[in-house]
Amino acid sequence: MTTPTVDVHAHVLLPEVDALVADLPGHAEAKALDTRRNGPASLAVSGPMVAARIPRLTDVGARLAAMDAQGVDIQLVSPSPSHYHPWADEETAEKLYRLANEATAAHCAQAPKQLYGLGLVPLQHPLQAVRALEHALEQGLLGVEISSHAPGRELSDPAYEPLWARAEETGAILFLHPFGCTLDERLDRWYLSNTVGQPTENAVALSHLIFSGVLDRHPELTLIAAHGGGYLPTHIGRSDHAWSVRPDAQSCAREPSSYLRQVYFDSLVHDPHVLRELVRVAGPDRVLLGSDFPFDMGTEDPLGALRAARLSDADFHAVRGGNAAALLPKE
């Protein structure tokens, strides 16, 4: 039986969530921050770009047709990171994650053999994190999508230990996908907020998980890093050097590069040479096909991008779907 082609980086837009937060205190301030971070020129492009993709983001029929055109059999569908809303208070955050989890599950239930879903966790309220994960699993979702940080908290914060422990215990998938970058207005032109900001956030978040010992304490955590893990995998030698010469960087048990083989990475790096390097440093069994469906910073041809890396046949098929299939429920 041929292994299905699995795209682990695909999004759904949830109008129910947008409606929930639209008129709430804090939403306008968050939108203003987003404007400052991205700059007016980028927002002027992003609005029409998203509008043109609404059918593929919301309609299962349009999604399946696009998947068929790409040669993709299965998607792991996560909410648009615009639904994180880290400004939300505890009451709002609980309503938000429950609504997002239920709406994502309902979307995927329309094509249960082809769509598997992830929910959301409000990282700004660590005490809600395990409840949010449990709720997602109760809906039949495979895990949750998380951002690279929350206001005032990094992923190394001890407050998240119960989340890592429960995710490891249940085998839930954690999909690390940043939204926004704390470099703020320094990246407010030329879409640097995304092109530089996202891989920076990935690298910082993963570094917190590695150096803090989270991956020592939770070696069986199923963690997928979007955007190929950002800058970290191709610059991991600098982390290894720091670990070898700096006592203050020796808080993890082994050299940092060794932890890359505990993390899964999507293939969305936009450069075949970088993809080959990612496969080399993380291992061919730790890279998964990812497209960022259907946004413009993704790829319309994820299999073509994978072929361009000129991997061995075995590695190509592992990344194409073999590795991800092992993370999906068995029929």
UniProtKB/TrEMBL annotation:
Coiled coil: none annotated. The keyword Lyase applies. Keywords: Hydrolase, Lyase. Residues 6-329 form the Amidohydrolase-related domain. It comes from the Bacteria. GO terms for molecular function: carboxy-lyase activity; hydrolase activity. Transmembrane segments: none annotated. InterPro entries: ACMSD, Amidohydro-rel, Metal_Hydrolase. One of its GO terms (cellular component) is cytoplasm. The keyword Ribosomal protein does not apply. GO terms for biological process: secondary metabolic process. This is Amidohydrolase. It comes from Streptomyces cupreus. The lineage of its organism: Bacteria, Bacillati, Actinomycetota, Actinomycetes, Kitasatosporales.
